[in-house]
Automatic annotation (TrEMBL):
Species of the source: Luteimonas salinisoli
Predominant location: endoplasmic reticulum
The organism's taxonomic lineage, starting at the top: Bacteria, Pseudomonadati, Pseudomonadota, Gammaproteobacteria, Lysobacterales
Protein's GO biological process: proteolysis
Protein name as it appears in the record: Carboxypeptidase Q
Keyword Secreted: yes
Length: 472
C-alpha cells in the first residue's frame, strides 16, 4: 500500500501538462487537481501534526496542554486565512491519572503493566487487595450471581481479534464491566486491553459513571500481563492482586475550535470537517487524533489557496473532550457544538469526521441516494485513481464528535481508512508521531480536499437524497 501511494505521488507530481486550477471552472477538474497537489506533498498536514504533538505532547481533556493546543490551533487557522476563527469553551469535569500500580502479591509477586481507565476513582492510600476471578467476556461477568465477587477483583479477559468491527464489539466491556463487577461485590476490576498490539502497553479509555461516579477502581491490563495472570490461574494458583491509584477529578473546561472558509454564494449552507484535539495521556495523540486534525485543516487549507472560495461554507471544527465521559451529563465537544449552533443546524448540509489515524483511505460511504446521484458519480471518478472504492457499509453516525449532528438530521459521509494497525497503538504510550506515514497522510488529505470541494461546489441537496433513501 505504501509503495503504491508513493508511486501515485510521483505520478501526480509529473503531471506538468495539467491546466492550472485558475484556468478552469469545472468543479470536477478542480477536485482532481486538488487531489494531485495533495498526493504530490503540496500540503501542511505532516508539519501540522508534528508541531501539535511536539509542542503539546499528550492533551487530556480539560488539561493545560489541551487548552494551549486549542489556542495554538486557533492562531494557526487565523494565519492561514480562515474566517471567523473562534474558541468555544464549555465546562468539564477533568480526570487526573496520578501515580498508579498493579501488582501480584503473595507467593508469586510481580509488577503488571496496567493503567487506570478514565474516570476510575482513587484507591485508599495503601491500595486494594483481592483475589482475581477471571471471566472470558462481559456476558460471563453478567452471568455471575449477586455476591459472587465479594471482596474480590474481577478480570475480564477477552481478546480482540484483528478484524473489522472487533473494537466496537468489545468496548461495552470497558464501559459497563466496572458497574457489573461492583453489583456482584467486587472491590476492583481488571480488563484485558482492547487492542491488537503485542507491545507491553495498556490500552486505556473511559468507562461509564453511575450516579456520578465510576463504581470501583478499574484498570486496563496489557495483553501480555493478562496472559501471565491466566497462566498462573491455569497452574492452579490463587492470584492475589494489589491495585493502587491516586486518580482524581477537577472542575475545568474544554473547548471546540471553529473556523470557516465562508462560501461565496451560499454561505449559510455549512459543511462540517471534524476531528478532535484532545488525546489520552500516555502517548502524544498522534494517530488519535492529531492526524485527523492535520488532515481536515490541510484539506481546507488547500481549498483556501484556490482563486475563489467554494460555493458553500466549509467549517473546520476541532472538537474538545472527545475521549472522556462525564459524571452528570453526556456533554462533550459534540454536544456542546450542537447546543451552541442549534439555530443553524438546519442549514448544515453535510458532516464528516477524521478520527481513525493516518491509514490510507480505501472506501467511501455515502447515503444511498447520494451515491447514485451525479454528484456521487463525479466524486467516485475523482477518487477512483487513488484506489478508493464504494463501501457497502452505510455512513451510520459518522463518528463520535459529529454523531449529535447526525442524530439531528445532518447527513454524514465517511472516508473509510486502512485500520489494520490502528489498534496496535490506539490509546497507548505508543501513539506517537513515528507511527504516521507521510504518503498515507497526504493520500487522506487528497481524498478530503477533493470531496470537500465537490460537496461545497454542488447544489445537491444531501438531506433530501438521504431522506429519500430512508423512506424507501
Amino acid at each position: 500500500m505504501r509503495s503504491a501511494l508513493r508511486l501515485l505521488c510521483c505520478l501526480a507530481a509529473l503531471i506538468a501538462v495539467a491546466p492550472s486550477v485558475a484556468a478552469t471552472e469545472d468543479p470536477e477538474a478542480i477536485a482532481a487537481q486538488l487531489r494531485d497537489r495533495a498526493l504530490a506533498g503540496d500540503g501542511i498536514a505532516y508539519d501540522f501534526v508534528s508541531e501539535l504533538t511536539t509542542r503539546f505532547g499528550p492533551r487530556p481533556a480539560g488539561s493545560s496542554a489541551e487548552h494551549a493546543a486549542a489556542d495554538w490551533a486557533a492562531a494557526r487557522l487565523r494565519a492561514l486565512g480562515f474566517d471567523g476563527v473562534e474558541i468555544q469553551r464549555f465546562p468539564l469535569v477533568g480526570w487526573i491519572r496520578g501515580e498508579e500500580s498493579v501488582e501480584i502479591v503473595g507467593a508469586h509477586p510481580q509488577r503488571l503493566a496496567a493503567a487506570a481507565l478514565g474516570g476510575s476513582p482513587a484507591t485508599p492510600e495503601d491500595g486494594i487487595e483481592g483475589e482475581v476471578v477471571p471471566f472470558d467476556s462481559l456476558e460471563a461477568l453478567r452471568a455471575a450471581p449477586p455476591g459472587a465477587l465479594a471482596g474480590r477483583i474481577a478480570l475480564v479477559n477477552q481478546r480482540m481479534p484483528r478484524i473489522a468491527g472487533a473494537y466496537g464489539a468489545l468496548v461495552p466491556g470497558r464501559l459497563f464491566a466496572p458497574g457489573e463487577a461492583a453489583d456482584r461485590g467486587a472491590v476492583g476490576l481488571l480488563l484485558r486491553s482492547i487492542g491488537t498490539g503485542r507491545a507491553r502497553f495498556a490500552h486505556v479509555g473511559s468507562t461509564r459513571y453511575r450516579d456520578g461516579r465510576v463504581p470501583l477502581p478499574s484498570f486496563a491490563l496489557a495483553g501480555a500481563d493478562a496472559d501471565q495472570v491466566e497462566r498462573l490461574l491455569a497452574l492452579g494458583k490463587t492470584v492475589r492482586v494489589r491495585l493502587h491509584s491516586q486518580a482524581g477529578h477537577v472542575d475545568t473546561h474544554s473547548q471546540n475550535v471553529v473556523a470557516e472558509l465562508r462560501g461565496r454564494e451560499a454561505p449559510d449552507e455549512v459543511i462540517v470537517l471534524a476531528a478532535h484535539l484532545d488525546s489520552w495521556d500516555a502517548g502524544t495523540g498522534a494517530i488519535d487524533d492529531g492526524a485527523g486534525v492535520a488532515i481536515v485543516v490541510a484539506a481546507a487549507e488547500l481549498i483556501a489557496r484556490l482563486p475563489q472560495r467554494p460555493r458553500r461554507s466549509l467549517r473546520v471544527v476541532l472538537y474538545g473532550a472527545e475521549e472522556v465521559a462525564q459524571p452528570h451529563t453526556p456533554e462533550t465537544g459534540g454536544a456542546a457544538y450542537l447546543e451552541r449552533h442549534a439555530a443553524e443546524v438546519g442549514n448544515h448540509v453535510l458532516a464528516m469526521e477524521s478520527d481513525f489515524g493516518a491509514g490510507a483511505v480505501q472506501a467511501l460511504s455515502l447515503p444511498g441516494g447520494v451515491a447514485e446521484s451525479e454528484f456521487g458519480r463525479a466524486l467516485y471518478r475523482v477518487l477512483t485513481p487513488m484506489a478508493v472504492v464504494p463501501s457497502r457499509e452505510p455512513p451510520g453516525r459518522g463518528g463520535v464528535d459529529i454523531a449529535p449532528l447526525v442524530e439531528a438530521g445532518v447527513p454524514a459521509f465517511v472516508l473509510r481508512q486502512d485500520g489494520s494497525r490502528y489498534f496496535d497503538f490506539h490509546h497507548t504510550a505508543d501513539d506517537t508521531l513515528d507511527k504516521i506515514d507521510r504518503a498515507e497522510l497526504d493520500q487522506n488529505v487528497a481524498a478530503w480536499a477533493a470531496l470537500a470541494w465537490l460537496a461545497a461546489e454542488t447544489g445537491t441537496d444531501f438531506r433530501a437524497l438521504s431522506a429519500a433513501e430512508v423512506d424507501q
